Amino acid sequence: MVMSNPPEKDRDRKMFVGIVWNCAAEFKFLLVALLLLCSLATVFQFLSSRFSVFPSDIRHCLSGTPADLSGNITTLSVVPDPPSVQLLQQPKQKQDQLLENGVIKRAFNPYGSAAYNFILMSAYRGGVNTFAVMGLSSKPLHDFGKPSYQCQWIPDEDPNSTVTTVGQKILTDWGYGRVYTVVVVNCTFPTPTVTKGKGGKLLIHATTNGGGDSSFNTTDTILALNETAEEFANFTSQFSSQPKYDYLYCGSSLYGNLSPQRVREWLAYHVKLLGSKSHFVIHDAGGVHDGVMEVLKPWMEKGFVTLQDIRDQERFDGYYHNQFLIVNDCLHRYRFAAKWMLFFDVDEFIFMPKKSTIQLVFDSFSDFTQFTIEQMPMSNKLCLLQDARTAYRKWGFEKLVYKDVKKGIRRDRKYAVQPRNVFATGVHMSQNTIGKTTHKTEGRIKYFHYHGTISDRREPCQKFVNSTQVTVDRIPYVLDTTMRDIAGIVKRFELKMIGTTLQRTRQ
Description:
seven-stranded antiparallel beta sheet, globular, 27 strands, nine-stranded mixed beta sheet, single chain
């Protein structure tokens, strides 16, 4: 017996078949449209990337009226292919390798430059046949490669009579560099490079010689110095004359929100100490704001201070605002202008015993190219209880009177040099000198170090003590009024030299 479908289901099936049959043409058109759309999408994937259709082009076509279309024709944007010569110049890519010990040696294919080969700051003549060039270079390049420098002198009177020599590189901040390290290139030619009235040019050919990246070896030619005949004459005159200054201070990079009052005290003290034949070169790496500028200005007008803006060096990541680069530039820039050159910071105060003078002390070291200076670390927050009510009126070195006497600690030193005998220098001493260095300076010269006070714009006295000895944070301190006792002399000297213009200087 055969069972038949229920009447309702039979009617539904007939109705569906009827609808499909009656709409067969529409379904066929829909299927063809979908097939065409999918085909177009597939073809577009294989089209060259230089034909680009942008959404703005589509919107223009969809929204434009017949008038718009007649007046404005939108075309496909064509992006040109990269020059084929660039592709041909690229070295063959390295591939991963499976070593015999089963280790997979991965390949890295660098493109472009991670850091500059050489960043020139300055170049100075050091004699009739020698020059010094200061700059920055990629530290990884010097870590893993063997970059070299060749010096070339081209006289303007006869450009064909060039002379070349190997540049001796000196890495003054080795171990401190960051992305960049400081390079001083010494160019000493076998014959004099005399301008004879027309001048000349010093070129540096810096070659990367980049370790395993030998296929990327490049040479950059840098115009380090374009010397005029007048500049050579000025150098000859300075070279053969007595130095203009007895003492010249080369300051490190000043950075941060510095205290104008601390700068005021430091400058007045050292102008008094070093005398009328002294000069101070201050380098602004962002620390000379309006308040500090007001302190420097009267001394600049008196001829004691030269201010240099070095803020652009912040583009290149070196150690402590490229401190090593700055002191080397200062060394060679003023090499023949000073008998002695001093290197220390603006929170450090040089001191000689009362029965001595700056001239006697430095003359006693005349047989040495360099001598270092012992540090006396002072507390930057301990003051005498008797100063509690009047501390805000006292100078920093006048009220910070507790000396750190903890034993067994190696203290940093600062130093002075006779610059004519120095090829390159550092922050705490120079290792590139001609002549002797001595560290046996105890009892003749030292410096008091008020660490951090220069960058603290609040009242430095944070704790008042009524004792000659005290231990704070496991550090023993003893009362030392050496600097306090001469504060009055320094204040009177400042008043005599520049008047009352800085009397209202703030922290």
